[in-house]
Amino acid sequence: MLRDLHIQNFALIDDLWLEFGPGLTVLTGETGAGKTVLLSALELIMGGRGDSDQVAFGADKAKVEAGFDGDLTVSRTMSAAGRTRVLLNGDLSSVGALQKQIAKLIDLHGQHDHQALLLATRHIEYLDRWASDSISPLLGSYLNARQAWKKAHDELCEIQDLLAKSVEESEAGKIALDEIERIDPQPNEDDELRVKLPTLQHSEAISEFMAAAQEKLRGEGAALESLYELDALLEQVVALDPSIADLKLSAAELRHALDGIADALSDYAISIQHDSSALEEAFERLASLESLAKRYGPTLATVLERKEHLLTLVDVAENSDERLFRAKDEEKVRRADLEKAAQALSRARRVVADDFIEQISNAASDLELGKVRFDIDLATLPFSQWTDRGSDTVEILYAPAPTVPVRSLAKIASGGEVSRVMLALKSVLGKADNIPILIFDEVDAGIGGATGLAIGAKLKQLAETHQVLVVTHLAQVAVYADAHFFVSKESSGKDDNIVKTMVVALNSEQRISEFARMLSGSDSKAALKHAKELFDSAR
User: Fold this and answer.
1) What local confidence, expressed as pLDDT, does residue 414 receive?
2) Cα atoms found within 13 Å of the Cα of residue 187, Cβ hemisphere only
3) Residues 266, 214: contact at Cβ < 8 Å?
4) Collapsed DSSP state (helix, strand, coil) of residue 447
């Protein structure tokens, strides 16, 4: 639900706050008062194109902010220089992201902006939502079958691609694979050899250093022998003066630490190889690995990846007939399942299509559309064009008179006519329509008072499941509203040369006066009486 709208320095609006509630809200006012400005502000919130001309004269920028249920806030700022900025919940965003977010919330239907109704690709969604009880399970089954088929199809394509590659690469691939398998490189083996080689190259020098180090630790009169003697002396002192026990413990810990170092050095010295053949083998092994990397790399890791790829190619080539047969068979089975699910979905749509069109026709019959006729074109697409909606295309068709052939809704000439068709459709969809906010502009264009009451009643019915905002010139529509805003222009400044658009919420008494103006252009007693009777009747 749209909770509030804040407009600053936008066209003729200085600073305007509007708060909205659930149900039906109408905006009325004399022609040229500025109702279109409010719609333009809402279009900006929906991600419409901003124009620097919309910035109020003398202002640096215009700003439109809206708050929605669910703690969503939208802010759109336009500078006089033409720059625009979008904020979603206070975070900088893009116009595209704004359009995607708001498209789930608002559907605006105006004289020249009829959006979803004119897009034939959306009509299948209308039918499916209206008949969701019967369609949704079948659509779910179809989507599951489509996913299984796509998986099987992708696997088949992958095997076919590998087969094509294996034919092209078979000879060169076998030669490369034989060489890689003969050398049999292991992960990170080249790096490990580069670390090991310096030790092999300098083994004699390292052994000499290790012998000298051990002599310093464990030789006659060396560190450890002195520490053992120190330990014995401190043992005697502790017997006489226990207060230095901690010092004796520290000395013992030092001796243990040096003992550990001596043991580790001894183990290291034993591990050092003095075998010249081992050094030569390491050099030769590293040279072989570097040669592999140069030919099939650039790194040893790449060589190992190449090996796995070549193994796959060989496996495919050697087992191509069997693997291809299994993949084709799986794809065939999954396609049959998909076609069966698509047929069931299509049959269900055809079962409900006539009732759907009949309900739209019935809803339209009260909306001054004359002897209009609706039909539905439900056709089957080629398999390659199937979508997540199934194998069908659905288009609602319309004829303005019995003698005229039905044709696309997009070809309806009158904006008011389109608005009323949309109103009929929306009233049929009811709770199945998942767009919560509906805005209608000039839904009553070119109609009389009696039909206006029918339109008002339809809008009131629609407002039971949606938040509905309507710009109207008919009192017969406005009397059904739960909230009523009056739009006017006021002059100020020297010689009244400054004109601003004002919007006020009307109470019941003020509404009756506005109804009287809309009905007869005056607030005479007769007009007020008529207005009150109309208001009471709607209530």
Assistant:
1) 64
2) 2
3) yes
4) coil
My answer on whether 56 and 179 are in the same domain is: no
What is the torsional sign of CA 105, 110, 115, 120? positive
Question: Hey, what amino acid is at 491?
Answer: S
Dump pLDDT digits (tens) for 78-107.
999 888 999 999 999 999 999 999 988 998
- pLDDT for 74 equals 96
**pLDDT tens digits for 306-316?**
888 888 777 76
Q: Which of 164, 210, 110 is nearest to 156 (CA)?
A: 164
Number of domains in the chain: 3
* Alpha carbon distances (Å) from 13 to 3, 105, 178, 361, 460: 19, 25, 80, 41, 29
Which residues does 102 contact at the CB level (< 8 Å), separation at least 6? 45, 46, 47, 74
**Secondary structure (3-state) at 253:** helix
Write out the residue range of the structural domain in which residue 159 sits: 151-321
Q: Which of 84, 61, 62, 86 is nearest to 73 (CA)?
A: 86
Domain match, 69 and 196 both: no
Residues 35 and 175 in one domain: no
CA 517 to chain centre: 48
CA-closest candidate to residue 141, choices 433, 351, 390, 331: 390
Q: How far apart are CA 139 and CA 341, in angstroms?
A: 8
Report the distance separating Cα 421 and Cα 398, nearest Å: 9
Q: What CA dihedral angle connects 235, 240, 245 and 251, to 10 degrees?
A: -40
Token pair belonging to 249:
């413990």
Contact assessment for residue 445 and residue 469, using Cβ atoms and an 8 Å cutoff: no
Tell me if 537 sits within 8 A of 510, measured CB to CB.
Answer: no
The pLDDT of residue 9: 94
Q: Is 135 domain-assigned?
A: no
> Which of 536, 369, 361 lies closest to 448 in space, CA to CA?
369
Alpha-carbon distance of 406 to 333, in angstroms, equals 40
Q: Name residue, tokens 């939208």.
A: 74
All residue ranges of the chain with pLDDT < 50 are 112-113
- Cα separation, 102 vs 85, in Å, equals 16
